[in-house]
Amino acid sequence: MQSRQKKILVVDDEPDILEFLQELLTQEGYAVAVAERAEYIDTLRDDILPDLILIDVLLSGKDGREIVRRLKRQPETGHIPVIMFSAHPGAEPTVLAAGADDFVAKPFEMDEILAKIAMHV
Fold first, then answer.
1. Helix H segments across the chain?
2. Tell me, what's the pLDDT at 3?
3. Domains of the chain
4. Does the model's pTM come out above 0.85?
5. Phi and psi at residue 104, in whole multiples of 5°?
6. 84, 103 in Cβ contact below 8 A?
7. Which of 39, 62, 96, 106 sits 20 to 30 Å CA-CA off 15?
């Protein structure tokens, strides 16, 4: 029996990063949805919930940590692993305090991000 394809949602306001991650994760066999706007997360429904969310810490005036806090408080999304990323290495303690399950520093090491994703899905 074949297991279903794992769904990953990537949220970042930089199109180049979205394109890179979409290509990388698709090649690894994941179903990938991308969004440039944090508001996309507000549209998540039970039938389309991702298995994991990758989200930038800073999104065009929005703080990804606040989005993670909100996701983790909601029964529908609280169980979804969230990996946050940032170019600011000092952000790690603050993202973990916000409820993120993991952190990856930019620029990404492909092996590192893939290993962290595999660990959570």
1. 15-27, 64-73, 92-97, 110-120
2. 67
3. 7-120 (3.40.50.2300)
4. yes
5. -130, 130
6. yes
7. 96
Kindly report, residue by residue over 44-90, the tens digit of the pLDDT.
Answer: 776 679 999 999 999 887 899 999 999 999 998 999 999 999 998 78
Given a cut of 60, is residue 1 above it in pLDDT? no
E runs forming strands in 20-59: 31-35, 52-56, 58-59
Before 89, cis peptide (omega within 30)?
no
Residue 2 has pLDDT above 70, yes or no: no
Q: d(Cα 21, Cα 99) in Å, to the nearest integer?
A: 22
Residue 107 corresponds to which tokens in the numbers above? Answer: 């620029």
Encode 88-116: b = buried (16+ Cβ within 10 Å), e = exposed. eeebbebbeebbbbbbbbbeeeeeebbeb
User: Rounded distance, CA 15 to CA 74, Å?
Assistant: 28
